[in-house]
Amino acid sequence: MEKLIFRKFIYDVLIFFLVLSISLTLIVWVIQAVNYLDFVSEDGHSFFVYFGYISLILPKIFGKLILFTFYISIFYVLVSYEESNEILIYWSNGISKFQFINLILRFSFIVMIFHILFNFFVVPKTQDMARSVIRSSAIDYFPSLIKSKQFIDTVENLTIFVEKKNENGVFNNIYLKDNLEDDKSQIISAKTGRIITKNDENYLLLEDGRIINIDGNKTTTFNFGKTEFNLSKYSTKTTTYPKIQEINSFVLIKCLKSFYLFNTGFKEPFFSCDTGSISPVLRELFKRTLHQIYLLIVALVAGCLLVKTRNDKSYTYYKFILFLFGMFFIILSEFNIQYIDFYSDLKLLLVSLPIILIFLFYVLLILNRKIIFK
Questions:
Q1: pLDDT tens readout for residues 178-198
Q2: How far apart are CA 123 and CA 126, in angstroms?
Q3: Alpha-carbon distance 79 to 90, whole Å?
Q4: Could you tell me which of 114, 339, 125 has the C-alpha nearest to residue 245?
Q5: Cβ-based neighbours of 80, under 8 Å, separated by 6 or more
Q6: pLDDT number for residue 137
Q7: Three-class DSSP labels, 48-98
C-alpha cells in the first residue's frame, strides 16, 4: 500500500513537472526564436538555417528551466494535497513525515542524476550542432539585404553602398570596400551592377567602374568595363566559433586537469585552454555538475510544507515564506556560478557550497525529527 501511495505522488509530480517544463520551454523558445530572426533579416542566412539553429537550442532552454520547474512542481503538488486533505491518506497509513521527506529526497536525487547527464552530454552536443549549422551555412539571402542609400556590412571585411536599386534588381552607383588585410584594402565603384548566381554562388556583376588598390602608402587605380565580384567567399559576422558552453565536457575536464596537475594548457581546433579560459571552464563544469545539487535543496524546502497543516493559523504566511525561501536558493545558485573563479581563494568554498547547504539542511531536519516529523 505504501508503495502505491508513494508511486501516486511521484506520478503527480512528474506529470505536472513535464507539462510545466514543456510549456515554459516553448514560451521561452518562441521569444528566443523571434530574437534570432536577425539571422535572416540582418545576417542573410536562409530560413532553413534559421529553423535548424533554433530547433537545436530547445535542449538548452529545457535544461536551464529544470531547477525552477521541479521546485514549483513539488511545491504545487504538496499544497494541492494539503488543500484537498489528500495528504491525510499518507498519515492514516502509518507513513511519517520524515519518511515522506526521504521519499522526496530520493526522487529528487534521481532527477538530479538525469539533469547532470542531460547538461553534461546532451546540451553541449546540441549547442555545438547549432553552431555548426551557422558555421557551414552560406549567406543565402544576401541580395535581399542590399537596400538603397544604406551601408551594408553584413559580411565580414566588406562594406557595400548602393545609391539606387530598381524593381529589376539593378543597382546604380555602387561603392564597395574590401578589407583584404591589416594594411591592404580595395575600393570598387561602378555605375551599375546586379546579383548573379553561378554554381550556387553569388556574384556581383559590375559595369563601367574603377578599382582602387591600397597597399600601405601605395595606391594603384585602373578602370574596367565589366567585372565579377565573388560574394560567396565572405563569411557572416555571426559568431561561428564554439563558445565555452558548446565545448565537449571531457575537453573541459582535460583543460581543468592540465592546469591543476601540470599547470599547462593546450589548443584544439576551436578551443584554447589557457589562463584566460580556465575560470570560464571551471564555471561551466560546475554548472553542468555540482550546480544540480540545488535540486535537492529546493526539494527539501518544498518538503517543509509538511511541517504545518492548513488548519494552522500561520499556514498561509508559512507557505508564502517557504516559497520565497526556495526561490532564494534558485537565485543563489545562479549567483554562485557567476562568482566562481579559478584564481580566487574562495573557489573551493563556492564550488562546494551546494554540498554544504544540502548537508546542513538535512542535519537540521534530523535534529528536529522528534518535534516535527512524528
A1: 887 777 889 999 999 888 877
A2: 5
A3: 14
A4: 125
A5: 86
A6: 61
A7: HHHHHHHHHCHHHHHHHHHHHHHHHHHHHHHHHHHHCCCCHHHHHCCCCHH
3-state secondary structure string, 123-140? HHHHHHHHHHHHHCCCCC
Task: Give me the torsion for CA of 364, 366, 372, 374, rounded to 10°.
Answer: 180
Strands 201-215 and 184-198: what pairing?
antiparallel
End-to-end, the C-alpha distance of the chain in Å comes to 20
Secondary structure (DSSP) of 319-369: HHHHHHHHHHHHHHHHHHHHT--TT-TTHHHHHHHHHHHHHHHHHHHHHTH
Q: Side chain identity at 327, as an amino acid letter? A: M
Neighbouring C-beta atoms of residue 294, cutoff 10 Å: 25
Q: How confident is the model at residue 210 (pLDDT cuts 50, 70, 90)?
A: very high
Q: Locate cell 503538488: which residue? A: 77
The more confident residue out of 217 and 292 is: 292
Residue type present at position 323? F
Run of H or E residues at 17:
helix 2-35
The three-state secondary structure class of 181 is coil
* Unique residue bearing C-alpha cell 484537498: 84
Q: Residue 200: exposed, middle, or buried by beta-carbon count in 10 A (0-12, 13-18, 19+)?
A: exposed
Give percent of the chain above pLDDT 70.
Answer: 89
* Model pLDDT, residue 78: 96
Neighbours of 108 (CB within 10 A): 26
Q: What is the pLDDT of residues 24-59, one digit of tens each?
A: 999 999 999 888 877 655 555 667 778 888 999 999
Spatial distance between the Cα atoms of 112 and 70, rounded to a whole number of angstroms: 10
pLDDT band at residue 236 using 50, 70 and 90 as cut-offs: low
**DSSP 8-state symbol, 263:** -
